[in-house]
Write a structure and sequence with these properties.
287 residues, mainly alpha, ABC2_TM, transmembrane helix, transmembrane
Length: 287
Protein backbone atom coordinates (compact mmCIF):
# COMPACT_ATOMS: atom_id res chain seq x y z
CA UNK A 1 0.00 0.00 0.00
CA UNK A 2 2.81 2.38 0.90
CA UNK A 3 4.62 1.66 -2.36
CA UNK A 4 1.43 2.22 -4.34
CA UNK A 5 0.77 5.51 -2.56
CA UNK A 6 4.32 6.71 -3.13
CA UNK A 7 4.16 5.81 -6.80
CA UNK A 8 0.84 7.62 -7.16
CA UNK A 9 2.38 10.73 -5.64
CA UNK A 10 5.37 10.52 -7.98
CA UNK A 11 2.98 10.28 -10.91
CA UNK A 12 1.13 13.35 -9.60
CA UNK A 13 4.40 15.28 -9.27
CA UNK A 14 5.43 14.38 -12.83
CA UNK A 15 2.00 15.41 -14.10
CA UNK A 16 2.36 18.69 -12.23
CA UNK A 17 5.75 19.34 -13.84
CA UNK A 18 4.29 18.80 -17.31
CA UNK A 19 1.24 20.90 -16.50
CA UNK A 20 3.37 23.74 -15.18
CA UNK A 21 5.56 23.84 -18.29
CA UNK A 22 2.51 23.79 -20.58
CA UNK A 23 0.87 26.63 -18.65
CA UNK A 24 4.09 28.64 -18.72
CA UNK A 25 4.34 28.21 -22.50
CA UNK A 26 0.71 29.28 -22.89
CA UNK A 27 1.25 32.31 -20.65
CA UNK A 28 4.20 33.43 -22.77
CA UNK A 29 1.89 33.47 -25.79
CA UNK A 30 -0.59 35.82 -24.13
CA UNK A 31 0.19 39.48 -24.98
CA UNK A 32 -1.30 40.72 -21.70
CA UNK A 33 0.87 38.38 -19.62
CA UNK A 34 4.01 39.23 -21.56
CA UNK A 35 3.32 42.95 -21.13
CA UNK A 36 3.05 42.44 -17.36
CA UNK A 37 6.38 40.56 -17.26
CA UNK A 38 8.07 43.52 -18.95
CA UNK A 39 6.20 46.31 -17.14
CA UNK A 40 7.66 46.10 -13.63
CA UNK A 41 11.27 45.52 -14.77
CA UNK A 42 10.86 48.54 -17.03
CA UNK A 43 9.66 50.68 -14.12
CA UNK A 44 12.57 49.55 -11.95
CA UNK A 45 15.00 50.16 -14.82
CA UNK A 46 13.84 53.76 -15.02
CA UNK A 47 14.28 54.11 -11.24
CA UNK A 48 17.82 52.73 -11.44
CA UNK A 49 18.70 55.04 -14.31
CA UNK A 50 17.60 58.06 -12.28
CA UNK A 51 19.74 56.80 -9.38
CA UNK A 52 22.91 56.84 -11.46
CA UNK A 53 25.51 59.16 -9.98
CA UNK A 54 23.84 59.05 -6.53
CA UNK A 55 25.59 57.41 -3.60
CA UNK A 56 24.46 56.02 -0.25
CA UNK A 57 24.69 58.90 2.28
CA UNK A 58 28.03 58.88 4.05
CA UNK A 59 29.66 56.51 1.56
CA UNK A 60 30.84 56.43 -2.04
CA UNK A 61 28.74 53.33 -2.78
CA UNK A 62 26.20 53.69 -5.60
CA UNK A 63 22.62 53.97 -4.33
CA UNK A 64 21.29 51.96 -7.29
CA UNK A 65 23.64 49.10 -6.47
CA UNK A 66 22.36 49.10 -2.90
CA UNK A 67 18.69 49.04 -3.93
CA UNK A 68 18.84 46.54 -6.81
CA UNK A 69 19.36 43.33 -4.75
CA UNK A 70 16.48 44.25 -2.43
CA UNK A 71 14.21 44.85 -5.42
CA UNK A 72 15.28 41.47 -6.79
CA UNK A 73 14.31 39.72 -3.55
CA UNK A 74 11.01 41.58 -3.46
CA UNK A 75 10.24 40.58 -7.06
CA UNK A 76 10.73 36.90 -6.26
CA UNK A 77 8.38 37.17 -3.29
CA UNK A 78 5.78 39.10 -5.28
CA UNK A 79 5.86 36.62 -8.14
CA UNK A 80 5.40 33.69 -5.79
CA UNK A 81 2.69 35.20 -3.60
CA UNK A 82 0.39 37.44 -5.61
CA UNK A 83 0.34 35.51 -8.90
CA UNK A 84 -0.85 32.15 -7.49
CA UNK A 85 -3.37 33.82 -5.18
CA UNK A 86 -5.15 35.50 -8.09
CA UNK A 87 -5.07 32.41 -10.27
CA UNK A 88 -6.41 30.11 -7.54
CA UNK A 89 -9.43 32.33 -7.00
CA UNK A 90 -10.10 32.40 -10.75
CA UNK A 91 -9.66 28.66 -11.26
CA UNK A 92 -12.02 27.89 -8.42
CA UNK A 93 -14.69 29.82 -10.29
CA UNK A 94 -14.06 28.26 -13.72
CA UNK A 95 -13.98 24.64 -12.47
CA UNK A 96 -10.27 23.92 -12.89
CA UNK A 97 -9.82 23.27 -9.19
CA UNK A 98 -12.86 21.01 -9.10
CA UNK A 99 -11.37 18.86 -11.85
CA UNK A 100 -8.05 18.67 -10.00
CA UNK A 101 -9.88 17.46 -6.90
CA UNK A 102 -11.40 14.58 -8.86
CA UNK A 103 -7.92 13.32 -9.86
CA UNK A 104 -5.96 11.04 -7.48
CA UNK A 105 -3.37 13.20 -5.72
CA UNK A 106 -4.57 15.97 -7.98
CA UNK A 107 -3.91 18.69 -5.42
CA UNK A 108 -0.25 17.71 -5.15
CA UNK A 109 0.13 17.83 -8.92
CA UNK A 110 -1.77 21.10 -9.02
CA UNK A 111 0.55 22.68 -6.46
CA UNK A 112 3.68 21.44 -8.26
CA UNK A 113 2.32 22.78 -11.55
CA UNK A 114 1.74 26.23 -10.09
CA UNK A 115 5.24 26.26 -8.63
CA UNK A 116 6.71 25.49 -12.07
CA UNK A 117 4.46 28.03 -13.80
CA UNK A 118 5.24 30.94 -11.51
CA UNK A 119 8.85 29.87 -11.17
CA UNK A 120 9.21 30.23 -14.94
CA UNK A 121 7.41 33.54 -15.23
CA UNK A 122 9.13 35.02 -12.18
CA UNK A 123 12.49 33.94 -13.58
CA UNK A 124 11.76 35.92 -16.74
CA UNK A 125 10.79 39.02 -14.76
CA UNK A 126 13.81 38.84 -12.48
CA UNK A 127 16.15 38.28 -15.44
CA UNK A 128 14.73 41.40 -17.08
CA UNK A 129 15.28 43.20 -13.79
CA UNK A 130 18.94 42.18 -13.53
CA UNK A 131 19.76 43.46 -17.04
CA UNK A 132 19.45 47.16 -16.11
CA UNK A 133 21.43 46.30 -13.00
CA UNK A 134 24.54 46.20 -15.13
CA UNK A 135 24.30 50.00 -15.28
CA UNK A 136 25.46 49.95 -11.64
CA UNK A 137 27.51 46.77 -11.96
CA UNK A 138 30.72 48.54 -11.02
CA UNK A 139 29.69 48.47 -7.37
CA UNK A 140 28.10 45.01 -7.42
CA UNK A 141 29.76 41.67 -6.84
CA UNK A 142 29.02 39.56 -9.94
CA UNK A 143 31.23 36.48 -9.60
CA UNK A 144 30.49 32.74 -9.64
CA UNK A 145 29.43 32.83 -5.99
CA UNK A 146 26.92 35.57 -6.79
CA UNK A 147 25.15 33.56 -9.47
CA UNK A 148 25.16 30.38 -7.37
CA UNK A 149 23.68 32.24 -4.42
CA UNK A 150 21.05 33.95 -6.57
CA UNK A 151 20.04 30.60 -8.05
CA UNK A 152 19.64 29.10 -4.59
CA UNK A 153 17.72 32.11 -3.32
CA UNK A 154 15.44 32.04 -6.35
CA UNK A 155 14.57 28.36 -5.88
CA UNK A 156 14.06 28.77 -2.14
CA UNK A 157 12.00 31.89 -2.73
CA UNK A 158 9.61 30.13 -5.10
CA UNK A 159 9.12 26.96 -3.06
CA UNK A 160 8.57 29.22 -0.05
CA UNK A 161 6.11 31.72 -1.50
CA UNK A 162 4.07 29.80 -4.11
CA UNK A 163 2.47 27.35 -1.63
CA UNK A 164 1.73 30.25 0.73
CA UNK A 165 0.22 32.23 -2.15
CA UNK A 166 -1.90 29.23 -3.14
CA UNK A 167 -3.13 28.76 0.42
CA UNK A 168 -3.97 32.45 0.82
CA UNK A 169 -5.67 32.58 -2.56
CA UNK A 170 -7.94 29.71 -1.58
CA UNK A 171 -9.32 31.82 1.26
CA UNK A 172 -10.64 34.54 -1.06
CA UNK A 173 -14.21 34.19 -2.31
CA UNK A 174 -13.41 35.67 -5.73
CA UNK A 175 -10.46 36.91 -7.76
CA UNK A 176 -11.22 40.59 -7.12
CA UNK A 177 -10.40 40.15 -3.42
CA UNK A 178 -6.77 39.20 -4.14
CA UNK A 179 -5.96 42.90 -4.19
CA UNK A 180 -6.01 42.64 -0.40
CA UNK A 181 -2.96 40.37 -0.60
CA UNK A 182 -1.14 42.91 -2.74
CA UNK A 183 -1.98 45.64 -0.24
CA UNK A 184 -0.80 43.46 2.65
CA UNK A 185 2.43 42.68 0.82
CA UNK A 186 3.13 46.36 0.31
CA UNK A 187 2.56 46.99 4.03
CA UNK A 188 4.96 44.18 4.95
CA UNK A 189 7.68 45.72 2.80
CA UNK A 190 7.98 48.58 5.29
CA UNK A 191 9.60 46.50 8.08
CA UNK A 192 11.42 44.17 5.69
CA UNK A 193 14.42 46.34 4.84
CA UNK A 194 13.65 46.35 1.11
CA UNK A 195 14.09 50.08 0.51
CA UNK A 196 15.44 51.17 3.89
CA UNK A 197 18.01 49.50 6.19
CA UNK A 198 16.14 47.39 8.72
CA UNK A 199 18.63 48.32 11.43
CA UNK A 200 17.34 51.91 11.28
CA UNK A 201 13.85 50.75 12.31
CA UNK A 202 12.55 50.28 15.87
CA UNK A 203 13.36 46.90 17.38
CA UNK A 204 9.73 45.73 17.35
CA UNK A 205 9.44 46.44 13.63
CA UNK A 206 12.68 44.55 13.03
CA UNK A 207 11.18 41.48 14.71
CA UNK A 208 8.02 41.73 12.59
CA UNK A 209 10.08 42.01 9.42
CA UNK A 210 12.13 38.92 10.28
CA UNK A 211 9.03 36.76 10.58
CA UNK A 212 8.16 36.97 6.88
CA UNK A 213 10.02 35.84 3.73
CA UNK A 214 10.34 39.37 2.28
CA UNK A 215 13.17 40.33 4.61
CA UNK A 216 15.09 37.07 4.16
CA UNK A 217 14.84 37.08 0.36
CA UNK A 218 16.07 40.66 0.26
CA UNK A 219 18.88 39.81 2.69
CA UNK A 220 19.90 36.80 0.60
CA UNK A 221 20.01 38.85 -2.60
CA UNK A 222 22.07 41.53 -0.87
CA UNK A 223 24.51 38.95 0.48
CA UNK A 224 24.95 37.59 -3.04
CA UNK A 225 25.48 40.89 -4.85
CA UNK A 226 26.93 43.40 -2.39
CA UNK A 227 30.53 43.62 -1.13
CA UNK A 228 31.23 41.95 2.20
CA UNK A 229 31.69 45.27 4.02
CA UNK A 230 28.07 46.23 3.32
CA UNK A 231 26.97 43.56 5.82
CA UNK A 232 27.70 46.17 8.49
CA UNK A 233 24.28 47.69 7.73
CA UNK A 234 22.50 44.41 8.53
CA UNK A 235 21.30 43.01 11.85
CA UNK A 236 24.29 41.74 13.79
CA UNK A 237 26.62 43.08 11.08
CA UNK A 238 26.27 39.74 9.25
CA UNK A 239 24.50 38.30 6.20
CA UNK A 240 23.21 35.42 8.37
CA UNK A 241 23.17 33.03 5.41
CA UNK A 242 22.35 29.89 7.42
CA UNK A 243 19.51 31.63 9.22
CA UNK A 244 18.21 32.92 5.89
CA UNK A 245 18.00 29.47 4.31
CA UNK A 246 16.64 28.05 7.56
CA UNK A 247 13.74 30.49 7.81
CA UNK A 248 12.87 30.16 4.12
CA UNK A 249 13.08 26.37 4.40
CA UNK A 250 10.70 26.40 7.38
CA UNK A 251 8.20 28.51 5.42
CA UNK A 252 8.50 26.10 2.47
CA UNK A 253 7.80 23.03 4.63
CA UNK A 254 4.80 24.67 6.26
CA UNK A 255 3.50 25.84 2.88
CA UNK A 256 3.68 22.44 1.20
CA UNK A 257 1.97 20.84 4.20
CA UNK A 258 -0.78 23.39 4.63
CA UNK A 259 -1.54 24.33 1.00
CA UNK A 260 -2.79 20.89 -0.18
CA UNK A 261 -4.99 20.60 2.93
CA UNK A 262 -6.51 24.04 2.39
CA UNK A 263 -7.02 23.35 -1.32
CA UNK A 264 -8.79 20.04 -0.64
CA UNK A 265 -11.10 21.67 1.87
CA UNK A 266 -11.85 24.50 -0.52
CA UNK A 267 -12.48 22.08 -3.37
CA UNK A 268 -14.90 20.05 -1.23
CA UNK A 269 -17.01 23.18 -0.87
CA UNK A 270 -16.96 23.66 -4.65
CA UNK A 271 -19.58 21.89 -6.71
CA UNK A 272 -20.61 21.85 -10.32
CA UNK A 273 -23.59 24.04 -9.46
CA UNK A 274 -21.38 26.54 -7.64
CA UNK A 275 -19.00 26.70 -10.58
CA UNK A 276 -21.89 27.23 -13.01
CA UNK A 277 -23.25 30.00 -10.79
CA UNK A 278 -19.86 31.72 -10.66
CA UNK A 279 -19.48 31.43 -14.44
CA UNK A 280 -22.92 32.94 -14.99
CA UNK A 281 -22.06 35.78 -12.60
CA UNK A 282 -18.84 36.55 -14.49
CA UNK A 283 -20.64 36.47 -17.84
CA UNK A 284 -23.33 38.79 -16.50
CA UNK A 285 -20.67 41.24 -15.35
CA UNK A 286 -19.12 41.11 -18.80
CA UNK A 287 -22.39 42.11 -20.35
Amino acid sequence: MTTTTSEARRVAVRAGLVRGLLEARQSLREPGDVLWYFLMPLVFAVVLIFMRGTTVPGTDFALGAMVLPSILGMSIAFGGLTGPAGMIATEREDGTLLRAKATPNGMIGYLVGKTILFGTTTLISTALLVIPGFTVAGDLRLDARTWAMLAGIFVMGLVTTVPVGVALGSLFKNASQTGLLLLGSMVLMVPSGIFYPITALPAWLQWIGQVFPYYWLGLGARSAMLPAEMAAAEIGGSWRTLEMFGVLGAWAVVGFIVAPVVLRRMARRASGAAVAEARDRVMAQGW
